């Protein structure tokens, strides 16, 4: 590839990135609370946690996204906004769906070895994504959710391929299957 082609590609990618940021929603308490209400309906009232915004509610070291029991999710609005800006529309919703999955695990006493705790939460998030696409008409949500999950892979969260697989598996099979017949891949 010649230098002119490389520059053209770099400029095109930069323009796409700027356009994506320009169209990203603002992730604020209204957006986060609306998402929590959507997930509660989609997950058939498995749990009803309080979502704490920018408050270190779980004693976490940074304001990212964290569930610390069946009734508590702690999120940083900047963290969610960055995910939305970087990975596209609904990235923040996908992260909240994943954390909601952890609250279900806490409520059921689920304790699996790494990375399956995280992958089961991805599965749960995938089931919310299906609801959001089918019922709420959020288009292209699955692609954003998968790219977001893949981006935050590593360590106890599993590989990018695993996170992709389990998010899609939850999307296809639903939340009940995430907690009754989760495959091991």
Please, could you describe this protein's structure?
The chain has one domain (26-180). α2 packs across α4 and α5 crosses α7 (160-173). The model is unreliable at 3-22 (pLDDT under 50). It has helices at residues 3-23, 29-42, 77-87, 91-108, 116-134, 141-151, 160-173, 175-180, and strands at residues 50-53, 65-69, 72-75. It is globular. It has 185 residues and is mainly alpha-helical. It is built from eight helices and three strands; from the N terminus they run ααβββαααααα. The longest helix has 21 residues, at 3-23. Strands 1-3-2 form a three-stranded mixed beta sheet. The N and C termini lie far apart (38 Å). 62% of the residues lie in helices and 7% in strands.
What's the total count of β strands? 3
**Backbone structural class:** mainly alpha
Shape: globular
- Largest sheet, order of strands side by side? 1-3-2
Rg, alpha carbons: 17 Å
Number of domains: 1
Strand content: 5-15%
The portion of residues assigned to helices is 55-70%
Q: What's the total helix number?
A: 8
Largest sheet: 3 strands, mixed
Low-confidence stretches: 3-22
- Oligomeric state of the chains in view: single chain
Order of helices and strands: HHEEEHHHHHH
Residue-averaged pLDDT, rounded?
89
First CA to last CA: what distance? 38 Å
List the SSEs and their pairings.
Layout: H1 3-23, H2 29-42, E1 50-53, E2 65-69, E3 72-75, H3 77-87, H4 91-108, H5 116-134, H6 141-151, H7 160-173, H8 175-180
Parallel strand pairs: 1-3
Antiparallel strand pairs: 2-3
Task: Kindly list the characteristics that best describe this protein.
185 residues; mainly alpha; three-stranded mixed sheet; 3 strands; 62% helix; disordered N terminus
């Amino acid at each position: 590839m010649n230098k002119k082609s490389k520059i053209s590609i770099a400029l095109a990618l930069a323009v796409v990135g700027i356009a994506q940021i320009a169209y990203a929603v603002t992730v604020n308490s209204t957006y986060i609370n609306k998402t929590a209400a959507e997930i509660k309906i989609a997950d058939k009232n498995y749990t009803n946690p309080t979502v704490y915004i920018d408050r270190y509610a779980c004693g976490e070291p940074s304001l990212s996204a964290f569930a610390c029991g069946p009734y508590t999710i702690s999120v940083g609005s900047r963290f969610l906004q960055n995910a939305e800006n970087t990975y596209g529309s609904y990235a923040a919703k996908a992260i909240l769906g994943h954390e909601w999955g952890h609250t279900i695990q806490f409520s059921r006493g689920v304790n699996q070895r790494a990375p399956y705790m995280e992958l089961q939460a991805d599965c749960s998030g995938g089931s919310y994504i299906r609801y959001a696409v089918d019922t709420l008409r959020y288009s292209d949500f699955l692609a954003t959710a998968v790219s977001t999950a893949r981006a935050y892979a590593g360590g106890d969260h599993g590989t990018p391929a695993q996170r992709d697989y389990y998010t899609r598996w939850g999307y296809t099979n639903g939340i009940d299957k995430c907690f009754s017949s989760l495959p091991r891949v």
